[in-house]
Amino acid sequence: MSPGRAAASVPVPGPPCASKIAFRLFGLELDRRSRAAGWGITSNLSHPGVVPTNLLAARPEVGRGRDTLGVRLIRILSRLGIVVGTVETAPLPALYAAASPDAERGRFYGPRGPGHLGGPPAEQKLYSRLHSTEDARRIWQTSEELTQVRFPTDRAVGRTARR
Length: 163
Prior knowledge:
single chain, 163 residues, mainly alpha, three-stranded mixed β-sheet, 3 strands, 42% helix, globular
């Protein structure tokens, strides 16, 4: 299969959601394959919540000449410490997912506040688009085809590679 055809078979919605969904499906598949083959890799997912950074800023190159009402509201609420996260709290779910002894493998972590927009890290329900193991498998296979890298699936190979 050509890279173009492989990429076309990936089951994701349009941008900007597509890359986030694909990345998360890949992470879940990595954890499943690591468990099955005994690679010893734990893969968790995380999201920072809503944080007023330059990703929200009005920029002509992304089609926004000025901040929307929603963006202005997020900035105000963040300054007041209400509902949304801050630049300082945004990395906490990723740190929790990667380093906390309480984080379980193959899970999704994000802020536990209202609407999961801010607050301390907690386990989140997977988005409905992340439930398909078939979609995750196809993302994995497409990644292998596009990179021309194959990973061992045999438990013995996985143990040997860690020595």
